[in-house]
């Protein structure tokens, strides 16, 4: 292995390790989306605390949208959709499913409460 | 023109005179001296045929027919009628979806005026990418010209993610390219093209791109549905007017944390439901909107 390639590989491993470490430090909040609710649908976070929101669904294509923070993702059946998020202000913020998923799609919402 | 004045006078005398809305830059440029004939059209929206929920509308199986009768009884025949989406209430069952679309079409077929334009809403089209809706009503987006006004019907619902999509945006751009910057342009859509209330899913994800395409045109007005109430908003010089529903009203945007329907009031049946007539005064790019109630049973 040429030295340059070795250095790149080492840097890559270090970056991956750093990424894993950084990821591991964040609280992971698992959210299940199903017709027609999010579980949990009332999520409490602390201002400035980085978290990972991890979404899954076994139903149909869903969406998670938190418009106040311009945060959204598709939630594809069989996949985990992850969003890294550090709330920078306190308050109660509504989130919704933004992919039309059926009759009670309009009821599929929740709130994130950010405390100081 | 004479008939248009008669119509306006009649509406005022009958106490039905509507609110007048002018396109933002109207008056900056005329129509090149050409004399245009004013006209009148009717918008109905969000009929949700197939909905069941007595607490919200105990006459869910009769409201649409009453609206059709009320349109037929208007003192002046409109040039055309447009339904801006959610003709039916959604269902996971493709057979039931088609049954509801067929029933809706049969009821709307009782309109005396045969010049009727249809558009899909997310309840009609989002679960099958508009497939069933198109079987009944044809193309989900289109444009047409009527007495000097260019109408564009935008489909922002067949994609379940509330996108217009690149292909349709390209079509809109091409369609608009044929218009003068002073052209009178009216856009029909189901969802709001602007971010009215994304927290309640009252938005179009790529609606800003459509508005950007429309911005160079000086006289643009958008009529839409989806939010089950009258609402008026400006994005720059472009006016956006939402229509009432014909099944149940929804609360005003932002009035509560969560979106909610307004329950049926037995003391005031059909309150908050209705349709509208739009008197179009082309020279001034002026639209006089008259809201009509659903006739009481």
Question: What distinguishing features does this structure have?
Answer:
heterodimer, A: 116 residues, alpha/beta, Immunoglobulin-like, three-stranded mixed beta sheet, B: 297 residues, Purple Acid Phosphatase, chain A, domain 2, six-stranded mixed beta sheet, 7 helices
Short description:
Chain A contains one helix and nine strands. Chain A has 116 residues and is of the alpha/beta class. The two termini of chain B are 36 Å apart.
Describe this entry's structure for a reader.
The complex is a heterodimer of chains A (116) and B (297). Chain A has one helix spanning 3-25; strands at residues 27-34, 37-39, 42-46, 51-57, 62-66, 71-75, 81-85, 91-96, 109-115. The longest helix of chain A has 23 residues, at 3-25. Helix content of chain A is 20%, strand content 44%. In chain A, strand 5 (62-66) and strand 6 (71-75) form a beta hairpin. Chain A has a four-stranded mixed beta sheet with strand order 2-1-4-7. In chain A, strands 3-9-8 form a three-stranded mixed beta sheet, with no helix packed on it. A two-stranded antiparallel sheet of chain A has the order 5-6. Chain A has a single domain, classed as Cupredoxins -  blue copper proteins (Immunoglobulin-like, Sandwich), CATH 2.60.40.420. Chain A is built from one helix and nine strands; from the N terminus they run αβββββββββ. By secondary structure, chain B is an alpha/beta fold. Chain B is built from seven helices and twelve strands. A six-stranded mixed beta sheet of chain B has the order 1-12-11-2-3-4, with helices on one face. A six-stranded mixed beta sheet of chain B has the order 5-6-7-8-10-9, with no helix packed on it. In chain B, a hairpin with a 2-residue loop joins strand 9 (231-235) and strand 10 (238-242). In chain B, helix 6 (166-177) runs parallel beside helix 7 (207-214). The longest helix of chain B has 15 residues, at 94-108. Chain B starts with a helix and ends with a strand. The interface between A and B is medium-sized, with 21 and 20 residues.
